[in-house]
């Protein structure tokens, strides 16, 4: 078990790893994190950045609910994931506005700590910029 003051870092790292994983790696990570008592979820996204902002936030929340990372009836937990996802997306906004984006959202939680990482491939012709946004919130279980 990780010390309480290090949980934020561990949870953030798990969210980032989930956002960078492919399907095969995702399954392995889910099992690894389950053993470590970390709850995780991941989901893909894509589209024009401005049109995708709302969809990315919604997908983060739905994935977290579906995988049991948060309780779908707990407004504080729903808001924590939505807020962390919004923060992650906002960090990428200057690079991505006006471009097509695709990537993956990773959500991780342990105890009071929730992190959302969003991995972006920002498209311009055949050249892609890669970027990661990360948001964190604390909620009481």
Automatic annotation (TrEMBL):
<dbReference type="InterPro" id="IPR036482">
    <property type="entry name" value="Regulatory_HutP_sf"/>
</dbReference>
<comment type="subunit">
    <text>Homohexamer.</text>
</comment>
<keyword id="KW-0010">Activator</keyword>
<dbReference type="GO" id="GO:0003723">
    <property type="term" value="F:RNA binding"/>
</dbReference>
<dbReference type="Pfam" id="PF09021">
    <property type="entry name" value="HutP"/>
</dbReference>
<comment type="function">
    <text>Antiterminator that binds to cis-acting regulatory sequences on the mRNA in the presence of histidine, thereby suppressing transcription termination and activating the hut operon for histidine utilization.</text>
</comment>
<keyword id="KW-0694">RNA-binding</keyword>
<comment type="similarity">
    <text>Belongs to the HutP family.</text>
</comment>
<keyword id="KW-0804">Transcription</keyword>
<protein>
    <recommendedName>
        <fullName>Hut operon positive regulatory protein</fullName>
    </recommendedName>
</protein>
<keyword id="KW-0805">Transcription regulation</keyword>
<dbReference type="InterPro" id="IPR015111">
    <property type="entry name" value="Regulatory_HutP"/>
</dbReference>
